[in-house]
Amino acid sequence: MNKVVYDQDHDLSKVDSLAELQNMASACSRCSLRKGCSGVVFGEGNPEARLMLIGEGPGADEDRLGRPFVGRAGQLLDRILAAVDMERFTHVYIANVVKCRPPGNRAPQADEAAACLPWLYRQIELVSPRIIVLLGSTALQNLIEPGAKITVMRGKWLVSKSGIKIMPTYHPAALLRDASKKRPVWEDFQKIRDEYWKDRL
Ligand code: URA
Ligand code: URA
Fold first, then answer.
1. What pTM does this model have?
2. Given 36, 78, 137, 194, which residue has the most CB atoms within 10 angstroms?
3. Which tens digits make up the pLDDT trace of 18-32?
4. Which of the listed residues 69, 123, 141 should we mutate to test ligand 1's pocket, taking the one with most ligand atoms within 8 A of CB?
């Protein structure tokens, strides 16, 4: 493909493949995070997955490797998926609210998330999942409601205007800090597995 020059006004609804969207996102400089990271971590998994997972943003390992959820939290995420007989390249597609690593792993700021979210929204449209799992409060607050509390919202289904079932749960990094969150996440992923296989025996 030819070199893509990202045009701030480009209508992303006309971008009709994930590969093209990734190419464009790789050339993005809509916020200052791009200057401080090694590269854009676009996302990975099955591009036709019925289940999409959305995290916060790349950490140091993800920034180095250019892949989402490959550090400690990512390894725990893989174990959580394995516990419900799922695997990242088969059953899910994984992306983040921001695609460039925030300095020092801080949460993305509102302006950074706002600049990046059009990529994620188009990514969601192109993957077209039936279920979205929001991993942690950054995903919850940027996709659902700025003041939403993950402790209150986790484990309950929401439905988007287009009919996507949405389940917020704790971020795997939160489980590494607080083992008491493992049980609720286990329960949430049981519900997610049931919904995933509903109508699909
Ligand atoms: N944490 C996230 O939210 N996303 C990643 O990709 C890695 C760690
Ligand atoms: N351990 C922590 O204490 N925090 C994280 O985010 C990940 C691992």
1. 0.92
2. 137
3. 999 999 999 999 999
4. 69
